[in-house]
Each structure stands twice: as structure tokens, then as C-alpha cells.
Amino acid sequence: MTENTINIDQQATDERYMQLALALASEAAVAGEVPVGAIVVKDGVVIGRGGNSPIDTHDPTAHAEIAALRDAAKNVGNYRLVGCSLYVTLEPCAMCTGAIQHARIARLIYGASDAKTGACGSVVNLMAEPKLNHHTEVISGVLATECGAILSEFFKQRRLKNKQ
Fold first, then answer.
1. Does the predicted TM-score (pTM) go above 0.90?
2. N- to C-terminal Cα distance for the chain?
3. Which of 65, 91, 137, 146 is catalytic?
């Protein structure tokens, strides 16, 4: 097997899991939340799921990433999620990036960049901070068009609603 084959296989796998995160983002949008979805995968099995819910839960920490990490940690019985990958439709913020690092997530794969609060390179890059004791591999731009489109459509609909 060549290096390109491995990369193509990994890309296909990442896209398949990002589709699952997009489905959770769609559920969040239907609930009136900013459409962000996240899943945690360990050894090819989804062990955690989450969608944005800060509005419904009155909880500023109820981001999709946090929900997925909590679900995964509960399911494996450990707050350390060593060897896991986190797929999220939007670049994580500083709060979520910190949680990802504390959970010891091995790989973070995200779709759309966030020019306002992204903490994996768009605004700041906490994942690249050499003083931190854990470093997560970051892969950006997986299904970025689809991930960005669901956000754009949500905010377009919200603006239309507010004009009425």
C-alpha cells in the first residue's frame, strides 16, 4: 500500500465521519441552535455525539464538542480519551480547544474555519502552543463547503426572520 493510498483512505474515513457530525449539526439547527455537530471516534466506533445546545440548556458551555466529549467520557468511563478522534463541523473555540487538550484527543478534524472565535489557527492557535503538555493533530477543511453552507443558511434564515 502506498502513502497516497493511505491518505486517500484516511480522507474518505474522515469525510464519512464528518457526514455524521453534519447530521448532528442539522438537528441543532432544527432546534434553533447554531448548527454545529461533533462526534468522537475510537477504533472505528462512534463513542460520543453532540450538537450545540447553549440556548436550550441555558448553558454557555453546551457546545457540540463539549457534549461529544462528555458523552464519550461517560461511555468509556474515563475523562481521558486517549487514541480518539474528534470530528466537528466548525473550528473549535478556546474553551473547546482546552477541553480537547485535557481529554487527550489524538486527532481533531474540523470542517469550516471560524474567523471570529477559531482557536486552531483562525484567530489563535492553541493547538500549536509549545508550552502546553498535550498536542493534538489538527486536520482542517474536511467537507468545509458543506459545513460552512449549513452555518450560512442558518444565519441567512435568522436574518430573514428578524426582518419580519
1. yes
2. 58
3. 65
Rounded CA gap, 158 and 142, in Å?
A: 26
65 counts as catalytic? yes
Phi and psi at 39, nearest 5°, equal -135, 150
Q: Closest by alpha carbon to 22, among 42, 36, 40?
A: 36
Q: What is the pLDDT along the chain (164 residues), one digit of tens a residue?
A: 444 555 889 999 999 999 999 999 999 999 999 999 999 999 999 999 999 999 999 999 999 999 999 999 999 999 999 999 999 999 999 999 999 999 999 999 999 999 999 999 999 999 999 999 899 999 999 999 999 999 999 999 888 888 87
Bridge partners for 152 per DSSP: none
In 37-141 the beta strands, taken as DSSP E runs, fall at 37-42, 45-51, 85-90, 107-112, 137-139
CB 74 within 8 A of CB 53: no
Q: For residues 43 and 67, what is the distance between their CA atoms, to the nearest angstrom?
A: 20
